[in-house]
Amino acid sequence: MSAHKILVVDDQPINVQLLKRKLEKEGIEILTAYNGQEALDSVAHTKPDLILLDVMMPDMDGIEVCQRLQANEASRHIPVIFVTARTSKEGKIEGLGVGAVDYITKPIDLDETLARVQTQLRFVQINREMLDLQRRLVEARRAATIGAVTQGVAHNLNNLLGVVLGYLDLIKSGYDKPEKVKKNAESVENAVQRIVSIIKQLSSLVVKSRLPLVRCKLNEVLESAVARYQSENKITQPVLIDNPLGEQTIDTHVEIFEDVLVKVLINAWEAYDETAATERPIWMRTALTETSEGRQIQITIEDAGHGIDEDIRDRMFEPFISSKHTVGVGMGLTVARHALRNLSGEITVNDREGGGSSAVITHPVERKTRKGLDA
Questions:
Q1: Which domain of life is it from (predicted)?
Q2: Residue-wise pLDDT tens digits, 61-99
Q3: Which residues have CB under 8 Å from 250's CB, separation 6+?
């Protein structure tokens, strides 16, 4: 591991030299600065692990230096220990209030300073290890997702191709029976369409592009999504919409957002037993919420079906995870969450009070710019 770098900032050279000599004996690389501007320039070029910063300096004091460091995304994570002759409670609170992590009072006790520095450097190292662990975890999850998608795609396509070949054999053996040929040909077409659907969903997970956003009315998006859901899946039962927001506008990619809603509606429809051919009530309601990231539209889609299976509760957004046992299913929620996150939204699914499940979709109301969004 490379040596830690500490920037010592003080307008008194003797103080800098004392600290430099003590810390270098511990194998720490020391950088020096004798005023606030030198300190800011050094941080910009060297990225130290820790800063020992004198508070009382001419022109630019330590408080202002710390404020500028905190205002810069590239330096706000660097811990600052103030070195000061001020011992009042108010002075310490002021320093901690602008982002300092600790205080050392003058006259400096070198052994105490070393102990405080080593404590902060341990925190720096722990933070680095946590960031590295987080990066590895993200990579591991990505690799696991790719593996699950690959395995799931291969399994489902093989099954569907087996269905196609089976019906083609039936067509060949019964070519002189037009009705059976027609029925078997329709089954082949359905299987092929499911293959096409898997490929389309897979493409939506990996293709990155700029998504053009437009301002549109929420009620029109909801009505269009329900119409698509009914038309594409030959469903006649209505979705019960409670939209108190009326013509509230949002900035979104209409087709992608509609597709998310359609997939969640289908998930709600399929939550019912097959015996419930027509009586499958689905409710959709909207609300406006305020978050730290701005105003959000919240769309809740509920069903009274069999609820969330315990076997898949923690994995329902993984590709090809499904409680159904038919061929070619299991990517709907995966694609919906991926697409929604590309729109800076989110989706969660929980148990519904009284039975069934409740999917909560959040989507920003507006953006600072509607020119596009990186996927």
A1: Bacteria
A2: 999 999 999 999 889 889 999 988 876 677 677 778 888
A3: 215, 216, 218, 221, 297, 363, 364, 365, 366
User: Does the domain spanning 5-108 belong to CATH 1.10.10.60?
Assistant: no
pLDDT at 328: 36
Quote the CA–CA distance of 324 and 301 in Å, as a whole number.
Answer: 20
The whole-chain average pLDDT of the chain stands at 82
What is the Cα–Cα distance from 211 to 256, expressed in whole angstroms? 9
pLDDT value at 333 more than 90 = no
The distance of Cα 330 from the centroid of its chain, to the nearest Å, equals: 21
Strand order in the sheet with 357-364: 240-242, 282-291, 294-303, 357-364, 346-351
- Stated pTM of the model: 0.50
Max distance between CA atoms of the chain, in angstroms, equals 104
Q: First vs last Cα of the chain: how many Å apart?
A: 36
Q: Where are the domains of the chain?
A: 5-108, 208-374
Q: In whole angstroms, how far apart are CA 247 and each of 215, 229, 258, 316, 345?
A: 11, 21, 16, 33, 20
Distance from CA of residue 162 to its chain's centroid?
Answer: 37
Element (H, E) at 228: helix 218-233
CA distance 245 to 120: 50
The domain 208-374: what is its CATH number?
3.30.565.10
Please give the average per-residue pLDDT across 166-182, as a whole number.
Answer: 81
b/e map of 202-238 (b: 16 or more CB within 10 Å)?
bebeeeeeebebeebebbebbebbbebbbeeeebeee
Distance CA 79, CA 152 (A): 46
Cα–Cα distance for residue pair 280/276, rounded to 1 Å: 6
What average pLDDT score do residues 347-365 get?
90
Q: Is the pLDDT of residue 116 over 80?
A: yes
- Please tell me which residue, 193 or 10, carries the higher pLDDT value: 10
